[in-house]
Amino acid sequence: MTSAYSEILEDKASAKSNNKTEEKFLGLDSNPNARFKFFAELYVTRNFVEIIKYAERTASEDLSVSNSNFIVSHAYLALKNIENSDQFFGLAIKENLAQVLEQVIDLGKKEFLEEFKHYINKLIMLSHQNVDLWMIFGVIMVENNMLLPALQIFEQALMLSGGDNNQAKLYLAYINFRNQNYTLARKYCNEIIDDNSVKFEAFALAANMLIIEGKENEAQQIIDKIKVLNINNYFYYFLLHLYHKTRSCQADESIKFLQKAKELSPSSLFIRRELAETYLRNNNIDECGNELNKIIRINDSNLCDVENYLGLLNKYNVIGLGVSLLDKIEDRIEGNVRMLYYAAIFYLKAGNQKEKAKNYYDKFLISDAKESDKDYVQYLSHDLNDEYETAYKFFKKISSGENKRNLEIYSRTFNLFLAIDKIKEGIKHCEKGYEYFSDAKSREEIDYAMMILYAGNRQYKEAFEIAKRHTNSYNINFLSIKILLAETLNDEKELELLKNIPKIVRSYNIENFVACDKDKFNSGLKDYIKSDPSLEYAPIANATINGWHSKGNIANTDNQYMCLFLEAIQAAVERYIQDLKSEVTAEYPVRANIPENYKINYWSVVMEKGGHQQPHIHLDGWASGVYYIKIPGEVNEESKTGWLEVGRSTEELIPHLNIESSFIQPKEGKLVLFPSYMWHNTVPLTGDETRMCIAFDIINKEKKDE
């Protein structure tokens, strides 16, 4: 295959198939099967605009062939033309074959496997020789991520074609690649690499396999050549995205290709879900929510889409969005096993709605769900409630069953093994996880668990080696642990680079950046924050205790004081960057990773009596900051009440580490900036006055998806 790569794209004109499509259309005779085949070929490439164009050109003719009407109906639906879609589907449904196909599609999406098999058999009996119908059916299965039936369908289509069907081979190559059967995937790619109609998709897929083989330079050369072409095929752009996903890098490029694929196939839930997941992997929760909400209409969508949404959020542990969705569809959860499964999981993980968590947990356990799923939910419940001995019993059951390919039983079980003092068993368990997960993102999560377990077993050097593997790319999770390990190992060089507080933690006076009366300025900010309807008490998965935390970005306003504040922070951030550049070397991670292009996300925090923030880090940021608006009188030099503490992690994370922390006194008008990987918390308030501040993250907009 490599020799074919070297001759790639000599003839760019071959990518332009419009003229060929026109020639095929003009050459059609009155044979209904020929017309069906013409539309079917366009459908397989999701070229809905072309389908509509040629359907309109034949509108004066007799379009009584139901399956052509079926294809045209779906094309209109894809382009949001409901009226014409209904009209053509009404014609199509007169034929039993189209009706069966529609039923198969619907049942396939809902994963009713027995009925699904039944209708496959009916389809075979009704049209066992109709290759084009099988191709359409296969594409639909791929788009719904049903790869096993899709594999069987495309194999059937290839057999019915006498082995001469390169579109089927392309999809077979893709499915085998997804199933990690690289030998078969490579075989199919080799067979179609010279076919102009699919060769660009074949090259994109082959580049993915070269990455798996470790041949990154050769793969990148191919991608550099083909990504500049304007190929009118959504699957081509999806495969370019897949290449960047396989490399676990360049999220912006990946998103660009998916957006192009969505433009060419706007009705494809397959592409939209992949785009949403890419936003999630890049920690862009807002864009993920926006994208998923476009395909899920809570009042009239089928629950299959909602389940896909929840599955995605659960995979990336985005608990707040999941709970928000479940709250909206509360009346549709009971009676649906999968919805009960997700409801139990999300409310258990949320931790602040115990009554709902117990309700769904109890109902799920008496449902007809699979025993392996019940075991997992029971493990999760006992683990989250610190009932570790019981949790361990269920862990033993799920780790050897179907759930052994559930990433969470490797990435999140370190707390369990630390609590029951079975750390060596935990290390061996995580080592097994590497056998099931080969992608960089999953292995990174397992590495994190291994690092914590090594540290918990006092194997600090082994833990430190894992941390070093992931910190060149400014990985906040690993940097936050590396700094703790460096202090325990008394590694003075690393401590200098990671925790030299006078050099990398800076305090500024807001009056240096805004020309106004400080007291009036702070009063205006205080009124703005108090009127914010998004303030939420002790929100889910948040470090704030006995306090209020705003939701969303509070910078989206025309409030005069907030606008002045935003200008001041922008100037302060630039000052912080210049101070780093002039006073520390590029060896310092925070200096080496100064973003050229960044955005700032803001939120407010209001603390009352007993209010404080638990030790935490900011995973999205390069650097983070806090501006103090209102400080209680009890916060003074004589008492550290309400002070900012930097350097101490949670005791539960890694016990018995030797860690020192530093304290910074808050003052009204004071601004503090620090690297986002530094652990920080606040000392609890004891009085009745409130403490009010605005915090923010400086986020690298070009951050790689690592």
Describe this structure in words.
It is a single chain. With 706 residues, the protein is an alpha+beta fold. The protein is 58% helix and 9% strand. The strands form 2 sheets. The chain has a 7-stranded antiparallel sheet. Among the domains are: 115 residues, Serine Threonine Protein Phosphatase 5, Tetratricopeptide repeat; 72 residues; 198 residues, q2cbj1_9rhob like domain (Jelly Rolls, Sandwich). The N terminus is likely disordered.
Describe what is shown at a glance.
Helix content is 58%, strand content 9%. By secondary structure, the chain is of the alpha+beta class.
Strand content: 5-15%
How many helical elements? 35
CATH class of one domain: Mainly Beta
Instruction: Give the low-confidence spans.
Output: 1-17
N- to C-terminal distance: 29 Å
Characterize the biggest β-sheet.
7 strands, antiparallel
Number of strands: 10
Named CATH topology of one domain: Jelly Rolls
What is the average of the pLDDT values?
A: 82
Query: How are the strands of the biggest sheet laid out side by side?
Result: 1-8-5-10-4-3-2
Shape: globular
Q: What is the CA-based Rg, rounded? A: 29 Å
Structural class: alpha+beta
Overall CATH architecture of one domain: Sandwich
CATH superfamily caption of one domain:
q2cbj1_9rhob like domain
